[in-house]
Amino acid sequence: MIYVIAKLPCHEEGASKLADWAKGEDGFSVTRSHKGFKHIELLVGENNKTCWLYEQWETKEDHQAYLGFRMDNGFEDFMKEILEDEFSLSYLTNSGA
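Given the sequence above, the corresponding structure tokens read:
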């Protein structure tokens, strides 16, 4: 299993739009239907602007296929609208500790 953490530095209105999108019909319900999906959470920082996506996927390739699907279907434009800086994406594995 792979863990994915995405840091999304949104403007305040952008963080709210991201939360609304996640709850909507094109949001996490679509994410949950993709091959290899295990878990997703949207976390919001104390500043009500910075958001983190915490995800679990079977493989990195499953997540990258999903991300490609999203980018091909308008999510990149949505991200440009809500972000005030570049987003970052990290892939992690459990150390077993």
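The chain has one domain: 2-92. Try to locate this feature in the token string yourself.
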